[in-house]
Design a protein that fits this description.
The chain has 9 helices and no strands. The N terminus is likely disordered. The radius of gyration is 31 Å and the shape is elongated. The protein starts with a helix and ends in a 6-residue tail after the last helix. 72% of the residues lie in helices and 0% in strands.
Length: 179
């Protein structure tokens, strides 16, 4: 193809002939994200326009060149997204409590204390030894006079009960036990 006179027509023909197959290929690389795949398709066609020598390559078809360029663009785009931290909206920031405000932590402490009071005495005793006194499972077992497995079981069920009472705190309650 001669690029000087048929540049626009060559690109139109290229898009008409290879566009649907390239879009389908890029949809697979973007896990079905049509917007991202269309952006990559357009960028691939821009690259073809910027490199008219590709039209004169010894290929029977431009398809291998287009697919290679599209694949590399998809890889570059993914790497670029993975290198950046996830963006959050203003709504999340507005709903996040100020870390210097002690009111939130005081309210949380009151909520936790009230929920701990609702536990059975056996469950409460295990949690107090492990989480408030900082004892290990073995130390709590020795202090309470029960097997270590019972300490683990009671703490598991106590944390589940607290998670039901304190739904907003369930992520922090699902931590592991000290050994």
């Amino acid at each position: 193809m001669t690029t000087a006179t048929t540049d626009e027509r060559a690109l139109e023909e290229l898009q008409r002939e290879h566009g649907p197959a390239l879009l389908s290929f890029l949809l697979g690389l973007t896990y079905g994200d049509r917007q991202r795949a269309e952006d990559l398709l357009q960028e691939t066609l821009v690259r073809a326009w910027q490199h008219p020598e590709a039209f004169e390559a010894p290929y029977e078809s431009m398809r291998p060149w287009l697919f290679t360029v599209g694949r590399r663009l998809a890889i570059d785009a993914r790497r670029s997204r993975m290198a950046r931290p996830a963006e959050i909206g203003d709504g999340v920031l507005a709903g996040t409590p100020d870390p210097s405000d002690v009111t939130e932590s005081a309210v949380a402490a009151l909520d936790v204390r009230a929920a701990v009071r609702e536990l059975s005495p056996e469950h409460r005793a295990v949690l107090v030894r492990i989480y408030f006194d900082g004892l290990s499972v073995k130390e709590a077992a020795a202090d309470l006079g029960i097997p270590a497995g019972t300490v683990k079981s009671r703490s598991h069920y106590a944390l589940r009960a607290l998670g039901r009472c304190l739904p907003g705190y369930s992520r922090t309650l699902s931590g592991s036990l000290p050994s």
